[in-house]
Amino acid sequence: MTQGVDIKKVGFISLGCPKALVDSERILTQLRAEGYHIAPTYEEADTVIVNTCGFITPAVEESLSAIGEALDATGKVIVTGCLGERPETIRERHPKVHSITGSQDVEGVMDAIHELIPPDTNPFTSLIPDTGVKLTPKHYAYLKIAEGCNHKCAFCIIPKLRGLQVSRDAGEVLYEAFRLIASGTKEIMVISQDTSAYGVDIRHRESEFQGGQVKAHLIDLATKLGEMGAWVRMHYVYPYPHVDEVVKLMAEGKILPYLDVPLQHASPKVLKAMRRPGAGKQLETIKRWRDICPDLAIRSTFIVGFPGETEEDFQLLLDFLREARLDRVGCFTYSDVQEADATRFAEQVPEEVKQDRLERFMAVQQEISLERMQEKIGRVIEVIIDDYNEEPGQLIGRSKWDAPGIDGSVMCVHGDLAESEAARLIPAGSIKIGDIVRVLVEDADEYDLYGEIIEVVPWKPNVPQLGHFGKH
Ligand code: SF4
């Protein structure tokens, strides 16, 4: 039936954070719904969409060079995403881009696509898919609960780019999670700019979910998500008081014992200059969370070399690290972001001092990370399998304390490669990507755990699985 039909192909470059990835998925879903195909190479593409990131200077550069490359290859480029909120920056370097839209503007992107390559209206070839497009592997997915941010951190331009916070209704979010889990997703990563503030902008209004009403509040949402029986992971959670209730859900095993809390610094003076939300009494808060949920893993990110940061401030940060003993930590040197307030701050820290502080910071944290990881040796933990490794029987997975892409892995063996009786009994090749297994942890380094798979955990979510309705 499709002979002679000119199927339009769109190249797609997705840059930036998980929030941008969710926008990319929406655009790709719409493209597929309208019968466009996704081109794997520039050569095959009729046009290219670049979903850009504008967060920090290196990300802006990466976006601009991706646009340039796509223009050289195809001559027809549609730009969207965070950097699209600053069209003059793009036009200055690349005057020939076809159109520029900001983040979340699926409609704007589709309008541009229709102009450049009108859709195929043949009813036999323009098939509407029944599920969305996911850029992540099938077993995990990002769930965006809000867009934008109400804060004014001095180093950040996200509120300027993406606007004030707009939360989605809880019912809409929960139905999306339900659909994802029904179609095989086992792990849901909850994301937004400020997850703790979810629902504040819509006054925590109620919406319908499965015949009942649910409040747009983080605790209500986390409770309902936890009831679906998948792994639920919380990202970008600021330490507001009600987060204690979320940590209680973790202690009860309803959601994963994992909190991604971007703290950025520990010196009160620097935090004040940064205008960070929820800053203050950080150690007290962490201790309280660990009392509630001793198995909690805390991930955080920090910036060293923020304007005005003295050696004394930096020492406070190192002291904090030693005392807080966080599980997973990322650190960046401060870099100017065009239009961010901090670019105008006096007392910029010299580049070599920033680098020196970064190295000292990482040296302290690496020792802590190693100790934290070694504490896990001898435990039996649940691991979700992400990938195969070199030999049959070697697999790469993640524990409940590791988010994909940013944390460590659990390197596991079974079958002939294993030493324990239990692991040798599981034949190599019998475990697939997305399976959840129990692993006896035998070794650890700063980032990864190593162990043997001793059991496969049956997958029993509280959501009917697509293709299994009515079956037992
Ligand atoms: S909380 Fe601060 S860093 Fe995060 S998006 Fe909002 S303004 Fe930016």
UniProtKB/TrEMBL annotation:
InterPro entries: Elp3/MiaA/NifB-like_rSAM, Methylthiotransferase, Methylthiotransferase_CS, Methylthiotransferase_N, Methylthiotransferase_N_sf, NA-bd_OB-fold, Ribosomal_uS12_MeSTrfase_RimO, rSAM. It comes from the Bacteria. Residues 135-371 form the Radical SAM core domain. CDD domains: Radical_SAM. One of its GO terms (biological process) is tRNA modification. Pfam families: Radical_SAM, TRAM_2, UPF0004. It is found in: Cytoplasm. [4Fe-4S] cluster 1 binds at C17, C53, C82. [4Fe-4S] cluster 2 binds at C149, C153, C156. GO terms for cellular component: cytosol; ribosome. Residues 374-455 form the TRAM domain. The keyword Metal-binding applies. Residues 8-118 form the MTTase N-terminal domain. Keywords: 4Fe-4S, Cytoplasm, Iron, Iron-sulfur, Metal-binding, Ribonucleoprotein, Ribosomal protein, S-adenosyl-L-methionine, Transferase. Binds 2 [4Fe-4S] clusters. One cluster is coordinated with 3 cysteines and an exchangeable S-adenosyl-L-methionine. Its EC number is 2.8.4.4. Its main location: cytoplasm. It catalyses: L-aspartate(89)-[ribosomal protein uS12]-hydrogen + (sulfur carrier)-SH + AH2 + 2 S-adenosyl-L-methionine = 3-methylsulfanyl-L-aspartate(89)-[ribosomal protein uS12]-hydrogen + (sulfur carrier)-H + 5'-deoxyadenosine + L-methionine + A + S-adenosyl-L-homocysteine + 2 H(+). GO terms for molecular function: 4 iron, 4 sulfur cluster binding; aspartic acid methylthiotransferase activity; metal ion binding; protein methylthiotransferase activity. Its cofactor is [4Fe-4S] cluster. Catalyzes the methylthiolation of an aspartic acid residue of ribosomal protein uS12. Belongs to the methylthiotransferase family. RimO subfamily. This is Ribosomal protein uS12 methylthiotransferase RimO. The gene is rimO.
